[in-house]
Structure formats: C-alpha cells, structure tokens
Amino acid sequence: MLRSFVIAAALLAATSGAALAQSEQDTLAQPSLRASVTVSSDIVRIGDIVENAGSAAQIAIFRAPDLGTTGSLPVAQLLTALRTHQVIGVDTRDLREVSITRSSRTLVSKEIEQQIARVLERRNGLGDAANITVTFERDLRELQLDAAHTGDMRATIVRFDPRNGRFDITFEIPNDVTYNPTKLRFIGTAVETVEAAVLTRAVERNEILRSSDVVVERRPKTEIGNDVINRDRSVGMQARKQMRAGQALKTADLGKPDLVSRDQGVMLIYEAPGLYLTGRGKALDSGTEGDIVNIVNLQSKRTVQGVVTGPGQVTITAPGPRLTTAALSNSEPTAAPAPESRKAE
User: What percentage of the chain reaches a pLDDT higher than 90?
Assistant: First the structure.
C-alpha cells in the first residue's frame, strides 16, 4: 500500500513539474512583431501587433485606420510606444513597418439601389423591382460600416411620391456587438423603365432602318407607354416620319418597307382562272406588301388597282367572267376590274 502511494506521488510530482515548466516557457516566450494584422475595432491594442504580449495585450496604443483601409506603422515608432508600457525585448524580425487593416462591411451603391427597388416594388403603380431605376439625390459610391454590422438592411421609414417619383427611405442595420442599429437615410427618385429600341442617328421619312441605326436602352415607361417595339422587330422596318437621334421608337413610328414607290415602274401581273398575263405599269401610290395601289397601264393608259405582292410587282386577280379578245391584246391587262371595288374600266 505504501509502495503504491509513493509511486503515485512520484508520478504526480513529475506531471506537475512538466506542467510548471510548460507554464514558465509560455510565460517567458519572447514577444515578437506581426508583419500584418487586421483589427475590427477603432483602436489598436498591443496584443494585436505583438505576439506573446502577456498582460499588456489589452493596452490600447494607436487609433485604427479608417474603415476598409490599410495603414503602415513604422517599427521604430511602435517600439517607442511599447517601451512606455514596459514592453521591451520585442523581436522585430527585421521588419521596418507593420501593416494594419481595419475590417469593414462595404455597401456598394448597386446593392443599395437594388434594396430600394425591392422596397418600392409594386408600390403606387410601380412594377417589378428589376424594372425600377433608382437615382440618388447625391452621388453615392459605397459606404463603409463597422464589421459588426452583419444583419440585413431593414426599411423602417418609407416615403414615395408617385407624381414625381421621389423617395425618402430610412434603413436600419443591426450591430452584433453594441446591439444598437445603424440608421441610413437615402433620398432620390425611382422610375419604372422598359427596354426600348433607340435611334443612333437622325432618320428621314421612308428610310429603312439598319442594324447599326438602333440600340437598346432602358427608358422610363411613362415616356414609351405600351407602344414599345423591340430592336429585332425595328431593324428592316421603314420610318413613317422624320425622327431624331436618341429617340425611342414606337410601333406607330414604323411600318413595313414599301415594295412599290410612287412613280416607279412596276410589273403588272394579271391572274384569272387558267390565265396568267404580265405587262408594265407606273405606280401612282406607294405601298408595302398587301397594300392596294393605283397603277397606270402603260399600254392602254388606263388606271387600274392591284395588290402589292413583291418588290416592284403588282398583281390583279380577276374572279369574274372570261376575258374578251380585246382585253388580251398585246398581253396587257388593259381593262381588268379592280379586285376590291369590282369597278369596270
């Protein structure tokens, strides 16, 4: 029994001695500088910069850089500050300066715009958030908040005037450390926009739009209305009026391109059951595919009506009685009835 006690005491002594030696080693470990550190507070403590600072670790010695920025601290200046707090014998590791970064939460303007759009979505006649364009009263690039602000932006005050699109919104963001939320207020305008086809140059009446003439831009819905036309549909269409560069196109501004122009020489095609005749004519009207235009038959000098069926091509279809020999002379459709009015020539 006595022997067991002696062995246990010896083991305890050995263990305690090892623990004490380890504790003394930790206590006596030489303090040394860190090359770079990141702090979340507005002050820099000795323990942030010096490893193994011991009881002096919580002593504040410098102000931290601004939120989201990095500063450099010369080692000579740092050692002077440490000596005033009896921290000596610090291993500098041959460093000339220590880099200190202040952590932060960055709110970029795009994120704030999206949050405001979500708050105003379908409010007072506005549409989806994705179609709401936000403009701030003052230029806003980005905001830096303390890193402890980890919560979501929550709108607490929302004011919106649909007559002029002005908003005044206050958000709160909780702080995990102080539990006091930060308030952010934003003022500006919000308008619902749509994608519109916009002219890159001035266009004259009857011009055909090319691909390079039209780009896509977002424009206020109040400017475009419901008569919006997309870019793909506008290319190849004909301008119905003169328009300026930068003008957003509407469906009413464009039409199918004319296949027949006024005073243009055209091919006349006369179709009847079992009969197909061609001749030459002169257009008295302009028209696109499917339009009814007046044509002068150059052989008979009579005016007839036909349907535009192709570039420089007008077709007259006769559903009526068999043609006479006179009507077929010279293979010209000289006295064909109009397909719509059925008026005799």
Answer: 57
DSSP state of 119: H
Round to whole Å and give the CA distance between 303 and 3: 137
Written as six digits, the tokens of 165 are: 């699109």
Q: Where are the domains of the chain?
A: 27-102, 104-255, 265-331
pLDDT digits (tens, 9 = 90+) for 181-231: 999 999 999 999 999 999 999 999 989 999 999 999 999 988 888 888 889
**What pTM was estimated for this model as a whole?**
0.60
In 3-state terms, what secondary structure has residue 153?
coil
CA nearest neighbour of 175 among 38, 65, 40: 40
* CA–CA separation, 314 and 64 (whole Å): 84
Class (C level, CATH) for 104-255: alpha beta
* Amino acid letter, residue 265: G
Q: What is the CATH number of domain 265-331?
A: 2.30.30.760
Rounded CA-CA distance 269/86 in Å is 109
**Residue 136, burial from CB neighbour count under 10 angstroms (0-12, 13-18, 19+):** middle
Q: What is the mean pLDDT of residues 86-102?
A: 93
Question: By C-alpha distance, which of 279, 280, 309, 275 is closest to 292?
Answer: 309
Q: What pairs with residue 71 in β-bridges?
A: 100
- Answer for the pair 218, 196: CB distance below 8 angstroms, yes or no: yes
Q: What is the rounded distance in angstroms from the CA atom of residue 102 to the CA atom of residue 41?
A: 7
Contacts of residue 320, Cβ cutoff 8 Å, sequence gap at least 6: 272, 337, 342
219 touches 204 (CB < 8 A): no
For tokens 């000289």, the residue is 334
The count of residues in the chain is: 345
Alpha carbons within 13 A on the beta-carbon side of 163 = 0
The CATH architecture one would assign to domain 27-102 is Sandwich (2.60)
Q: Check if the beta carbon of residue 96 is closer than 8 Å to that of residue 74.
A: yes
